[in-house]
């Protein structure tokens, strides 16, 4: 059961518990008061501007050898020095939407800083804070909190950032409590000392953590960093710029090999969609020990790729980011829903722009949307989709969503979905900036990345393909970016709880844990390195992804022999081992595309996913992905009944309907009994058409009819 009223407490509580695990394993992180500065690295004497640029690219291209942010921050510093010697791009045009948004966000940040100053004065948290508070200062702080609430309310509509509601709730508490206390302070003419003492006690009593001001500092810092993302004409770099470039690099690396061998854009899109749904395991909730849960936080595409988990929105985000590196435009298809009184964008698919048409990929089902009979069973491949439907075809014929005569979306629901479908445009503010356009123009040959995107030009291209469909900016991009700002180093104790365990596994170095009696691994942070090498398709060899992932695995015998191995270190080692096994399984599965694939590779797929994931208690973390890969593997080998069994393994995620539908289509094409629906369709339609049907049916896809998870922070 989800308990929204306890959400902030749960997020903080879980974050602290997981951080304790991480700290005991690696040592506590160094906390700093101020935000780290990017763009401070100077260049060595005698270097040309081209040398500085080349050096920064080399750093970004070698991130697999450097876990953490230090190398990326250094690269941003060199880019800062490089761009200072570059002329401005006079062809770049600002976006009025981003200009106004940056102005509004900076105003919020300024008001939050002012509020902090007032709060320090009336609470006097340290000796350096002013000690001359008067009752009027309390009312001024209450009024300022009210102004901040109004500013956030104005920013919610255009950006749709659910996390803003968590901050609004904090300031509403501030406003109410301070307003009540201001009246008492005036009536009793309280001294500064009594004001300080009362306010500090009030904050401790009213907030989950006594470090109320520290939490406020986190939010204020996040707003400053978030506003910087909208600096369109700025030629200075920040850490979030590094994350954006890193994301483009990873997406380019993956898209170059995952796209397949075809030169046709639609075929490439199908392959990239398939990579996305196999490599990002759906996980929409974070379960808590008391049986309640919280929704997983929004995240940028690079985080979903790195950690291998995400929501339906992440599926859309990653797929679109991969397509962008192939210079293929795409948009999100969805409807407008409601969550606790607020409008909410609910995606169900992606429209891929090719030759003036938007081809529909039904992300919620994990399959492309096909035209009538647009799928077949192909030996060595399994279920393939031969005729992808376009959005215009879907609008003219909503029955395309019904797929087959059974186990389909009801026609009435399909018509309603098509009627209410909107186009949401993914427009990252960093991609619009002049600095990204300058970098992209300088990249040549194998370094080429797609970094810049004009939102107005992009909108026109999509609008031309779907002139009658309402469009809006996709809010999830902003939510993922803002969450990324919240999990900067200083704010990790409050946010980012869903990936702390994965980060601990990435940071784990067996070389540092072991002594001379154990086998010494070659690679530091092998799980991290293996993941990034996989993105670059560097699989084999001593320094390949497969070897790195093997080194990330620790046997029970090794763990028993490791010196000073405590329970928390043991848990992280177990998690790293099962994660490495899962990712090794994906490498083995990818061997299917190799002409030399044989029984040895087939056995490896089953060994990794069955024995090292499904039969491992820690493997529950990757259970959904393992069963899906096993189903796909069986499907390719022509073992259709086995594939259907794996597809039928129940999950709590939205793609379960798609798995059942895929199983149904396979059963239909292969002539296999699936439940009780092996009865002849013609007989069922000709006989007893009006009688009550008693056979068991598979639940139809949800098409987002399920109520959405409650927004974070309410």
Give, in spatial order, the strands making up the sheet with the most strands.
8-7-6-5-11-12
Major beta sheet, specifics?
A: 6 strands, mixed
Radius of gyration: 27 Å
Total helical elements: 29
Structural class: alpha+beta
Please provide the count of β strands. 12
**% residues in beta strands:** 5-15%
Describe the secondary structure blueprint for this structure.
Blueprint: H1 7-26, H2 49-61, H3 70-84, H4 96-123, H5 135-159, H6 163-188, H7 192-206, H8 212-228, H9 239-258, H10 265-279, E1 281-282, E2 285-287, E3 293-295, H11 301-307, E4 309-310, H12 312-325, E5 330-339, E6 342-354, E7 357-362, E8 367-368, E9 375-378, E10 382-385, H13 391-396, H14 411-420, E11 422-425, H15 429-432, H16 434-442, H17 455-465, E12 471-473, H18 475-486, H19 500-507, H20 510-513, H21 526-535, H22 545-551, H23 556-561, H24 567-590, H25 599-614, H26 623-636, H27 640-647, H28 656-670, H29 681-686
Parallel strand pairs: 1-4, 11-12
Antiparallel strand pairs: 2-3, 5-6, 5-11, 6-7, 7-8, 9-10
């Amino acid at each position: 059961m989800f308990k929204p009223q306890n959400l902030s407490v749960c997020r903080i509580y879980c974050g602290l518990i997981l951080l304790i695990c991480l700290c005991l394993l690696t040592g506590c992180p160094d906390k700093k008061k101020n935000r780290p500065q990017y763009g401070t690295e100077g260049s060595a004497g005698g270097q040309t501007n081209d040398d500085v640029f080349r050096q920064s690219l080399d750093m970004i291209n070698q991130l697999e050898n450097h876990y953490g942010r230090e190398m990326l921050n250094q690269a941003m510093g060199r880019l800062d020095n490089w761009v200072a010697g570059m002329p401005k791009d006079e062809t770049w045009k600002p976006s009025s939407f981003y200009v106004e948004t940056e102005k509004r966000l900076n105003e919020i940040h300024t008001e939050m800083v002012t509020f902090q100053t007032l709060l320090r004065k009336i609470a006097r948290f340290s000796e350096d804070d002013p000690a001359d508070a008067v009752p009027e200062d309390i009312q001024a702080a209450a009024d300022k909190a009210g102004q901040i609430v109004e500013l956030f309310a104005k920013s919610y509509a255009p950006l749709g950032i659910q996390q803003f509601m968590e901050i609004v709730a904090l300031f509403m508490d501030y406003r109410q409590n301070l307003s009540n206390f201001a009246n008492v302070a005036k009536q009793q003419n309280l001294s500064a000392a009594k004001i300080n003492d009362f306010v500090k006690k009030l904050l401790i009593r009213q907030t989950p953590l006594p470090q109320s001001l520290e939490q406020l500092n986190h939010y204020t810092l996040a707003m400053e960093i978030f506003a910087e993302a909208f600096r369109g004409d700025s030629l200075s770099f920040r850490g979030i710029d590094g994350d954006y470039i890193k994301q483009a690099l990873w997406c380019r690396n993956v898209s170059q090999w995952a796209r397949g061998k075809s030169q046709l854009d639609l075929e490439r899109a199908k392959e990239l969609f398939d990579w996305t749904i196999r490599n990002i395991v759906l996980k929409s909730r974070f379960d808590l020990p008391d049986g309640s849960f919280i929704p997983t936080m929004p995240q940028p595409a690079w985080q979903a790729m790195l950690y291998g988990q995400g929501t339906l929105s992440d599926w859309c985000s990653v797929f679109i980011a991969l397509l962008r590196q192939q210079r293929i435009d795409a948009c999100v298809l969805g409807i407008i829903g409601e969550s606790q009184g607020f409008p909410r964008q609910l995606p169900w698919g992606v429209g891929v722009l090719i030759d003036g048409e938007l081809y529909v990929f039904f992300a919620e089902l994990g399959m492309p949307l096909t035209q009538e009979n647009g799928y077949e069973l192909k030996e060595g491949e399994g279920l393939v989709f031969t005729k992808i439907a376009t959005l215009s075809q879907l609008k003219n014929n909503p029955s395309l969503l019904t797929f087959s005569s059974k186990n389909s979306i009801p026609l009435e629901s399909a018509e309603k979905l098509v009627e209410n479908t909107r186009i949401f445009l993914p427009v990252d503010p960093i991609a619009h900036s002049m600095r990204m356009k300058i970098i992209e123009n300088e990249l040549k040959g194998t370094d080429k990345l797609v970094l810049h995107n004009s939102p107005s030009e992009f909108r026109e291209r999509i609008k031309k393909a779907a002139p009658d469909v309402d469009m809006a900016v996709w809010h999830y991009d902003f939510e993922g970016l803002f969450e990324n700002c919240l999990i900067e180093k200083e704010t990790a104790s409050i946010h980012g709880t869903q990936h702390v365990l994965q980060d601990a596994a990435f940071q784990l170095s067996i070389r540092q844990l072991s002594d001379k009696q154990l086998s010494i691994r070659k690679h530091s942070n092998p799980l991290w390195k293996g993941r990034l090498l996989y993105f670059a398709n560097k699989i084999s060899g001593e320094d390949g992804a497969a070897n790195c992932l093997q080194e990330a695995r620790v046997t029970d015998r090794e763990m028993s022999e490791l010196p000073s191995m405590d329970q928390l270190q043991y848990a992280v080692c177990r998690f790293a081992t099962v994660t490495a096994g899962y990712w090794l399984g994906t490498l083995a599965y990818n061997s299917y595309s190799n002409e030399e694939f044989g029984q040895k590779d087939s056995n490896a797929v089953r060994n990794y996913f069955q024995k090292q994931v499904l039969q491992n208690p820690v493997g529950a973390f990757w259970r959904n992905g393992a069963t899906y890969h096993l189903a796909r593997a069986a499907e390719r080998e022509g073992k259709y009944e086995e594939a259907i069994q794996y597809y039928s393994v129940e999950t709590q995620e939205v793609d379960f309907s798609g798995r059942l539908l895929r199983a149904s289509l396979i059963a239909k094409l292969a002539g296999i009994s699936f439940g009780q629906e092996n009865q002849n369709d013609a007989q069922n339609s000709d006989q007893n058409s009006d009688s009550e049907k008693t056979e068991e049916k598979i639940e139809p896809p949800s098409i987002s009819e399920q109520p959405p998870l409650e927004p974070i922070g309410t």
